[in-house]
Amino acid sequence: MMTTFQLLTEFWNDRSPAFAIALLATFIYTLAFLARGVSRRQIAYFALSAVTLVLALASPLAALATRYSFSAHMMQHLMLLLIVPLFAMLAWPASNAPAAGDVWRVPHLGAIPLGWLAGVGAMWFWHIPALCTAGMQHSWVFAIQAASLVAAGAAFWWPIYRPQLQRRLPSHAAALYLFSGCVGCSLLGIYITFSPVSVCPLYAAGGGSPELLRLVHEQWGLTHRIDQQVGGLIMWVPACMIYLGAILATFSNWYVVPEQCVATE
Amino acid sequence: MTVQSIAPADAAERDGASTSKLLSWFSSVDHKQIGILYICTALVFLLVAGLEAVVIRVQLAVPYNTLVGPRLFNQLFTMHGTTMVFLVGMPILTGFANYFVPLMIGARDVSFPRLNAFAYWLVPFGGILLHYSFLTGSAPNAGWFNYAPLSERAYSSLQGVDYWLIALLVLGIGSVSSAINLIVTIVICRAPGMSIQRVPLFVWMMLITSFLIILAIPALNSALVLLLIDRTLGSSFFEPSRGGNSLLWQHYFWIFGHPEVYILALPAFGMISEVIPVFSRKPIYGYELVAGSTLAIGILSMGVWAHHMFAVGLGAAYDVFFAVGSLLIAIPTGLKVFNWTATLWGGSIQLTTSMCFSIAFLIQFVIGGLTGVMFAVAPIDWQLTDTYFVVAHFHYVLFGGTIFALFAGGFYWFSKMTGRMLNERLGKITFWLMVIGFNLTFFVQHFLGLMGMPRRTYTYGDHPGWFALNAISTAGAFFMAAGVLVFLWNVITSLYFGPIAGDNPWDAFTLEWATTSPPLEGNFRELPPIRSRRPVWDVNHPELADWKVQRTPEDHRTQPRSAAKLASACFIVSEAMFFLLLVSAYVVFNRTTDAGSSASHVLEAGRTGFFTILLLASSVTCWRAERALRRGDRSGFLRWLGTTLAFGGIFLVNQAMEYAGLLHRGVTINSSLFGSTFFTVTGFHGLHVLAGLVVLAIFFTLGWRRLLSGRQSDALGAVAYYWHFVDVVWVVVFSVIYLRVLT
């Protein structure tokens, strides 16, 4: 009989490319920003981003997401889409100086609808039952899925946390952008939660390690139906908390008096 | 609203000075007069609902009482709840907002004065409709949340529920109109220097409240129209015996109902945030936190409705998530309480009546909040739901909270509205009567609830302790009734004999005190410079001016934004919510394959697809018409707008033909849930297309008669927003119903 402890200790995938990617990213980050100087906080953000990537793709969570638990799969998506790119972007040193050749004083308009559609659309797209199933059956589809989620997340966060401070969305627009993103993801969450149709029917098919199946279904009580509800609720409630946190963060920036304004006093 | 936008904001001019004073109240478009009308209307309904409450309490004073029977009792608590929420709470808060938001931001009036009057007049209209049901002999009696299937024709066959539904629709339209007006006013009409980070917290709270209103009320409206269709056209959305889903009503109602709690609470928070600093002689502690936590409350409140439904057995997974979400709301709310307390700390507190009510608010609201946290824990909710513990909880929030804050605001602002001071001695009497009465009535109900006394039951058995506690509760109600009477006496006598107030009797901080009491028409003779959050304080105490010690973000607005387009955008958000829930109902009832196949049997996706493209093309032509008007190209404008009208008209004709075909084949609104949802969704969309066509036709006629100039391209732009929105809705409807992407 397998225990949760065994799951947490033994089901790390040390051959996952996530480790290599995280290492490579660390190497590049070190090289690129060693000269320019980054704050401790930015290093911490970077570490968080790398660790989240490894947790999402190589941890027992990833093992569960392969075929045992839909809610683990949802957690994985949430980490790839919302958390990894967010922290990666925050690890980037921001500057007031406009980028070279930057003539736009207003936020670049194309990035906003594209980012929003990418962020919200990616989640909807990968939960069309056929695609969800394909992602579980073929490792190459899964690789595309994971990469596209990170890319879509980066596109989503770009207007809010891009390195050029002056070109970030103004706070009220950022709040609207994030709130509507939250609504978009909530709708998917609500749909998955209440849908009698199985979003990823393969999770109900069984197969794989019977020990692990027993752990999830019997010891944890995550039957397929409850599992899908929890997955939908994860998409709905905690995902919205991330958006809400970002709204409050941009909002608090709103009240900060620009430095030069104080200096003229 | 879209028609309104043709008339620019200078409609504030009254309809001639010759109208008599009394008549001016009926024809007024002045925000101050309309504000007072709102408040007075709400007070009238407060007396009605209060009287109902007293009868309820008298009935419950002793066990086995037979003063009123079960039927009348059901009507009484239903009408008490409905009236208090929709005809007292919302109008009185809207009234204060109407009066003070423009003053506080240094504006002459609201953005759309006529829309404002329209929104107000819907309140008495809805109120009379609701109460007219008494004359039919069957006032609504299914509770203020009117749960289905009890509210269905089969169980409530008389007209009471119909009056309830229509009255709430009318009131909802009014609320959304006034909320849009307030948002546009706050965003556009602020005086120079009044950056949004400097507006008084009451204004800030009203902004968030208004957003909640435009998002939440449409959820109620969609539930109301579905139930109305059930009751009048024979469909079965909420009737399980015919395939419907009564839980859907609960979901829809609480998607509205939970934000509604904050719609009633946030403005009260705003009043408290104005009163406490003035009578502590300090600026508010942590302005940013009070404002930011409001935003957090607003967003969280939209996603936790299912905690009202723990008892229906949604399942452990739901309960956990909604419990956690609900508990989270305690954090920003607690933050606020902390900020108010910290504002009091070290202040030189002046215990005016207004301040007394604020302090009582703090204590009572915390009690109501804590029992709220208890209810967020699902097992406690299972135990206590539908007992008097719930009644105690929400009265501590809405009476001990909101109504006490209203008294605080009323005593604070009365001098500004009338030019005379209320009597402080009578005020203190009112205060003590209310505090004692309120706590007598509702504190003991906690115990009654714990003992298991069910709410909404017309009488009770002689169980140990029940009679004593109920008698105390009833006695408290009379204290409160006396308090209200003393207050009304105070108002009437002070109106004629109260001491003259002067401009700023409290040495208060915000702009409404920078003008005469009552303010003159157009509000201000001259505005003080706005360089901080307390401009009036800065003027009166130049040596201690806020801007010398604390910088606040400057006002960076450069060019004026379009009020019409902003209003249109808000209206669209509201309508989007309405359609979202209607389409959701379609998805709920047509998600299984057999139901879906009925759609593929009767619908012709190809044909409708062609007309969809036509409708989308009309968006492009509408945009071209707007551009032509801006350029002053009249013939181009008429050509493009004419094409738009033709495309829209053809789309509607096709829809009518499709309907005729379906009816011919026996698919009607009451034949199956597919028919019900199909006709409801496409029907409401068709009505929106028709409304858009009517407005565009008005523009066409105006253009034809050479009455349009480039200046009006802005108004046409606002209508064009709406037209594009109608097209986007159709794309969603087409994908869901005809292409069945979700099934």
What does this structure look like?
The complex is a heterodimer of chains A (265) and B (743). Chain A has one domain. Chain A is built from 12 helices and no strands. Chain A has helices spanning 4-10, 17-34, 40-58, 60-67, 70-90, 111-125, 129-137, 139-161, 171-194, 210-219, 224-254, 259-263. Chain A is globular. Chain A starts with a helix and ends with a helix. With 743 residues, chain B is an all-alpha fold. Chain B folds into 2 domains: 4-12 and 28-549, Cytochrome c oxidase-like, subunit I domain (Cytochrome C Oxidase, Chain A, Up-down Bundle); 574-738, Cytochrome c oxidase, subunit III, four-helix bundle (Four Helix Bundle (Hemerythrin (Met), subunit A)), CATH 1.20.120. In chain B, helix 3 packs parallel to helix 12 (388-418), helix 12 runs antiparallel to helix 13 (424-450) and helix 19 (605-631) runs antiparallel to helix 20 (634-664). The chains are: A mainly alpha (265), B mainly alpha (743). Chain A binds chain B through residues 172, 175, 179, 182, 186-187, 191, 193-197, 226, 229-230, 233, 236-237, 240-241, 244, 247-248, 251-252, 254-258, 261-262, 265, and chain B through 196-197, 288, 292, 295-296, 299-300, 303, 315-318, 321-322, 324-325, 328, 551-554, 580, 587-588, 591-592, 742-743.
In short:
The complex is a heterodimer of chains A (265) and B (743). Chain A has 265 residues and is mainly alpha-helical. Chain A has twelve helices and no strands.
